[in-house]
Design goal:
The longest helix has 25 residues. This protein has a 6-stranded mixed β-sheet with strand order 3-2-1-6-5-4, with helices on one face. Helix 1 packs parallel to helix 4. The radius of gyration is 21 Å and the shape is elongated. With 149 residues, the chain is α/β, with parallel strands linked by helices. The chain has one domain: FAD/NAD(P)-binding domain, CATH 3.50.50.60. Strand 4 and strand 5 form a beta hairpin.
């Protein structure tokens, strides 16, 4: 098992976690972020941002459909779902790349895996390949939330 030491460990790379990580990095604090799924969290990857992108596209489509009231006639209007999804995914990729750039720029390390506390200063992170023990002076829990089942 590998062991790492850091000044700040952050569990979760959603909006709370990555912002805290970037700020810590700006202040010169040695920081590691542990993320279970994807950089940017639910909002950026499958929630708010993709939803707003699709809503924007649907508003444009509705405006085009209603443009005949203004004398604008469009006869062969088509929606290409594959292109729409590709466009939406390109927005997500661009934003995730921006977060990744900032984290790297401020020397914040990101580890993909699931973190569990061993004690108040130590985390056990299970990654795809191995387990990592992280000893940290401070730990921020920024895991977001889920509805109860």
């Amino acid at each position: 098992m590998n062991e790492m030491k850091t000044e700040l460990a952050i569990i979760g790379a959603g909006p709370g976690g990555y912002v805290a990580g970037i700020r810590a990095g700006q202040l010169g604090i040695k920081t590691i972020i542990i993320e279970k799924n994807y950089l940017g969290g639910v909002c950026l990857n499958v929630g708010c941002i993709p939803t707003k992108a699709l809503l924007h596209a649907s508003e444009i489509l509705l405006n085009i459909k209603n443009s005949s009231k203004m004398g604008i006639e469009i006869n062969d209007l088509k929606l290409d779902i594959k292109k729409l999804n590709s466009w939406k995914n390109s927005i997500i990729d661009k934003l995730v790349s921006g977060i990744n750039f900032l984290l790297k720029n401020y020397n914040v390390e990101v580890i993909f895996g699931e973190a569990k506390f061993i004690d108040e200063k130590t985390l056990l992170v299970k990654t795809k390949n191995d387990d990592i023990k992280i000893v940290s002076k401070y730990i921020i829990i920024a895991t977001g939330s889920r509805p109860s089942e």
